[in-house]
Amino acid sequence: MKNVMKKIPAILMMAMILFTLSAPVYAEETTTVAAQTAETEQITDTEDATGDKALGAAIAVGLAAAAGAVGMGIAIAKSSEGIARQPEAEGKIRTNLMLGLVFIETAIIYALIVAILIIFVL
Length: 122
Description:
Layout: H1 2-21, H2 33-42, H3 45-85, H4 90-120
Helix pairs in contact: 3-4
């Protein structure tokens, strides 16, 4: 139960950051009343879908970054424990750690690329 209680503030902080960064999706421009009525007549389903795409992309990148950060934190913690237990194996542990961190970061970059494709291609 103590482990769960330790993770709750980190999860809440990540959620708060995600919601803060996705707030511009809901931003609205201030225009005159005449311009607003002209805009409301011209709104189509494709324009509404643009906001949905941006929201989906923000959620995808946010989740990938959060999961990657958690994975990197766990990997670094475990490698530090391993080095503390067996200092003579430091080189091998550090090499495997770096390789694992590169793979995690690559997955995050792939999520960013997918999000960019969602916004501009779909």
